[in-house]
Design brief:
The protein is α+β, with helices and mostly antiparallel strands. The protein has one domain: Histidine kinase-like ATPase, C-terminal domain (Heat Shock Protein 90, 2-Layer Sandwich). Helix content is 38%, strand content 23%. It has a five-stranded mixed β-sheet. A hairpin with a 2-residue loop joins strand 2 and strand 3. Bound molecules: adenosine-5'-diphosphate and magnesium ion.
Amino acid sequence: MRAELHGHEVALVLDLAANLPLVLGDRVQLQQVVLNLVMNAIEAMAGVTDRPRELRIGSARPDRDHVTVTVQDTGVGIDESESMLDRLFTAFFTTKPGGMGMGLSISRSIIEAHGGWLSAAANLPHGAIFQFSLAIDSGVADVVQVARVSDAAP
Ligand SMILES: Nc1ncnc2c1ncn2[C@@H]1O[C@H](COP(=O)(O)OP(=O)(O)O)[C@@H](O)[C@H]1O
Ligand SMILES: [Mg+2]
């Protein structure tokens, strides 16, 4: 999506944790979630001219069993009242002319099908933060461990 970011004059800041464990999931579906969140961020910043348009993508491991991915922008922002936060994730809710309003609904379904959560919050002073979690699969960790051991064998 670098071309898309470049075209919209959005600066990308990556804040990725090192050595995260693997998660078990559908690669294409998870890419779709990130794509939706990044496109929404770009669209939210499209009209911003009085401050930097900055997209931050971060990954972290807040506890032993989860990893999180955060997509943060400096766009128009969101109304943080509880009813509004729920509406964002409702199918066909859109504030864009020509918007479908399906992206966040589908993204939340995908993440929940992976045993995680997807949430939204205001990014102060400007913009929005979307974050999702994924459970670390201890079974996968074991498989990787086995693979590493066998890699090392002569
Ligand atoms: N990063 C964001 N900043 C501000 N508002 C957002 C952001 N992402 C989503 N929204 C709001 O949530 C609505 C629903 O998003 P989405 O489900 O992706 O549908 P669409 O992008 O087609 O409108 C958007 O129309 C917009 O009002
Ligand atoms: Mg969208």
